[in-house]
Amino acid sequence: MDSNGWIDELHEGVRYGLTGRVLHQEQSSFQQVTIIESKRYGKGLLLDGCWMTAEGQERCYHESLVHPALCGAERIERVLIIGGGDGGTARECLRHGEVQHLDMVEIDGRVVELSQQYLPSLGGGAWSDRRMHLSVGDGIAWAAAAADASYDIVLVDGSDPAGPAEGLFNRSFFEHCRRILRPGGVFGTQSESPEAFRCVHLEMVKLLREVFGHADPLYGWVPMYPSGWWSWTFAATDGARYRQPKPERAAAVAASCEIWSPRWQRGAFEAVPAAIERELEG
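User: That's the sequence. What structure does it adopt?
Assistant: Structure tokens below.
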């Protein structure tokens, strides 16, 4: 934080910042964890100086990651979240009554503890939901050890491809995610900004198409993130089922969403810029 109260993420010559104050900062076993309170978006979380979430922004991210997957899969009884220590992804998943068991594997227990303390609205009732099973550990190792066809949904809610999240962006990990999906399942991951992380974004989408057979990016926004323009990519082995939300599941959650709806989802999947489309189809 500078002397004028600005808290910034610096990325390739651009500053993405909010005015506010630091409430707590510590070095965990994995990364620097910072909790802030901003004037515009409420309390927020940074990891190693990069914006992760804030109370006034989190629905832009969590609704976009969760509902295309959970409304499109054949079944959603068993869900795996890798990362997601702030609790927002789990909260959105557990809004679906068909979910019977949710495993969340977060490598940094301090992210969970500090989110529960300072950002309790993100996880909400997820932390006490009987369906929620939190494990503090390595999500990459969890996926490698999980039984074949053991989950209907696998969601990756990780940070940028550096530090503890680096292994979430490679073929071996994605192949395990495919292996542990049940038939009719859906995989989803945040896939970076097509502007600020263009090469990483393109490589992820191409690799997921190779591994799963079907994968498509969905474009939206998280204004506090680098460039404000963000993406999530969904994959399946039996067709682009994530593009067709089941009406009964959509109806159960859409009325209380701020961002996601079947209409918004259709537009977000179609909003592929021309140059990116050429790169992906080339």
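The domain at 58-281 is CATH 3.40.50.150 (Rossmann fold).
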